[in-house]
């Protein structure tokens, strides 16, 4: 049974995606994780839900689908980055549920992932995954509340490209309340290493005017992160 199933999957070749399929476009940062949720209507007892993958970059003629999973059985070589949670039939939703998760995303993971049963009437679910540069702000993004005695803060914006091309630090910029930072007391120190770059923002002599939204932007919006800073005046 296993050998027959593998032969069927490897023989899949298509030139287009049918209009009856459900397609979701998903973008995730490099090194992050993603999960694809696939629900299929009630199946017969011998039905199999299969996950296959079509790489974005392929060198073979035609469009080939590579096997990943059948139900919860792995069809590829051992790879802990890929995990399938196959829950079987849910009486409440009246559907079968299968979730494919990929950890530590790489550029090579870009492509289309398809979930489909081997029943003729089953409609495929397709997920078009693209990978974007990763960005993080240190000490953290989100919200930073400064204490009353704090006189300075150092923010670091770190971006990593999906390829190994060197990043030009000039493509990294800091903004404060949607205005590009060019003040003399705000010191920007760009550092670069292969496909990663860091732009430090050092704010001295903090005041109430330094509160607000700080944004780090890479390559005109290719990647961006925000940090909201609340400063409590010493007179409070």
From TrEMBL:
InterPro entries in the cross-refs: Ig-like_dom (IPR007110), Ig-like_dom_sf (IPR036179), Ig-like_fold (IPR013783), Ig_sub (IPR003599), Ig_sub2 (IPR003598), Zig-8 (IPR037448)
Alphabetically ordered keywords of this record: Signal
GO biological process: synapse organization
GO cellular component term of the entry, any: neuron projection membrane
Cleaved signal peptide residues: 1-19
Domain Ig-like: 32-132, 133-228
Protein name, as recorded: Ig-like domain-containing protein
Organism of derivation: Adineta steineri
